[in-house]
Amino acid sequence: MKVAVLHGSNLNRLGRRNPAKYGHHTLDDITVDVEKTAATLGVEVIHQQSNAEHVLVDFVHEHQDELDALIVNPAGFSSVGYPLLDALRDTELPFAVVHISQWHAIDAKERVDIFAGSAAVYIAGAAWRGYSSALEALVHKIRQD
Fold it and tell me: 3-state SS string over the chain?
């Protein structure tokens, strides 16, 4: 089984960007944690981070035929990332949405996560642990089917 993990805008700054909100774990720390979880599950994981939505879309297009599922933290693209959402939907693969913070509760009247309704798994507010939790949940769903 192979799963892609996509990280949206500004997530390359984790650990330095607003640590009171996002914590002190870096993107590298999250990658190591996800890789450890993947090893215990017998799953291969590939990672991509970009501040440019089209790079993430191109990554999905390039790798979709070799994947069984995806995990995405759309970050700043959560309300406006229709091209990325379309690319994910077009794969017809299950995907998980991860938000480090309680994203949906911040300015709740103004923010809508367009990815939420299509996600097979949705995790918000579990901090850096959300990625591994999403991986475990996706693998479980796929193996049950």
Answer: CEEEEEECCCHHHCCCCCHHHHCCCCHHHHHHHHHHHHHHHCCEEEEEECCCHHHHHHHHHHHHHHCCEEEEECHHHCCCCHHHHHHHHHHCCCEEEEECCCHHHCCCCCCCCCCHHHCCEEEECCCCHHHHHHHHHHHHHHHHC
